[in-house]
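To: structure subgroup
Subject: Chain for Friday's discussion

All,

I'm putting the inputs and outputs inline so they're searchable in the archive.
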Amino acid sequence: MPWPTAIKLHRASRVLEITFDSGETFRLPAEFLRVHSPSAEVQGHGPSQRVLQLNKQLVNISAVVPMGNYAVQLDFDDGHNTGLFSWETLYDFGCHQTEYWQNYLDALAAAGHPYTAAPA
């Protein structure tokens, strides 16, 4: 499992950049991280309890709080801060970002909530 060597929050662009000792660097948008939060509030206690997150286009990360040697807690400016993002989770998000984002967009469409991107 790759280990993070740098984590940088880019507030202006609403992106968390994380570099791993494998040489890979991922730029994960705050919106992506918020709608995929590993918290029970988002994930529920099983796949059938997952809560589709809506209208998070403008969400930002207000703080990145280290949790031991295994994770960070991301404090989002919409008040959400209960998800612990392990290194494994962040690496997985980076590797599968396109696929996970498309799954989210498909879930929005299936629920009748067309996606509108935030203004640049």
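Points worth raising on Friday:
The radius of gyration is 14 Å.
The domain at 4-110 is CATH 3.30.2020.30 (NE0471 N-terminal domain-like).

D.
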